[in-house]
């Protein structure tokens, strides 16, 4: 285990976890809500799983980069949840948009949803981590498990494919 990622001696585990929870629990919950169907009914349970994992693996959580580590863990927890869940039809969307959260409005926008559906899951994930979660290059690299250069390249390619998907969507709408 790398000594640079262990809890400092002057901070006990409970204090560290309390600070982690206070600083990042809401962000983890929102991350999951945005990615779950039907209003994210399971988001609280999944967020608890992510935070429980952080507690169990607290020596592995890098100091100063807790949120990217939590997002990456949330991605794994969400993938496991999806493997266990029943499929939900894409047509099922909330009737009333969340007009408080701009990200929620974007999900309810048919055009955005249609264009995002044209992208690969990896491209969608990269774009949403940057747009919704506000991750920068270094944090994105940590979440993806790649170098900073790899994350920058992946983001650039995802943005280019998003532009192409918008163009194809617009052409399809114009054609009729």
TrEMBL record:
Q: Which UniProt keywords apply?
A: DNA-binding, Sigma factor, Transcription, Transcription regulation
Under Pfam families, the record lists: Sigma70_r2, Sigma70_r4_2
Q: Does the keyword Transcription apply?
A: yes
The protein in question is named RNA polymerase sigma-70 factor, ECF subfamily
Which range is the signal sequence, renumbered to this chain? none
- Asked whether the keyword Transcription regulation is assigned, the reply is yes
Q: Which one GO biological process term can you cite for this protein? A: DNA-templated transcription initiation
InterPro entries hit by this protein: RNA_pol_sigma-70-like (IPR039425), RNA_pol_sigma-70_dom (IPR014284), RNA_pol_sigma70_r2 (IPR007627), RNA_pol_sigma70_r4_t2 (IPR013249), RNA_pol_sigma_r2 (IPR013325), RNA_pol_sigma_r3/r4-like (IPR013324), WH-like_DNA-bd_sf (IPR036388)
- Per UniProt, residues of the RNA polymerase sigma-70 region domain are 20-86
What would be an example GO MF term here? Answer: sigma factor activity
Family membership, please give it.
Belongs to the sigma-70 factor family. ECF subfamily.
- RNA polymerase sigma factor 70 region 4 type domain residues: 110-162
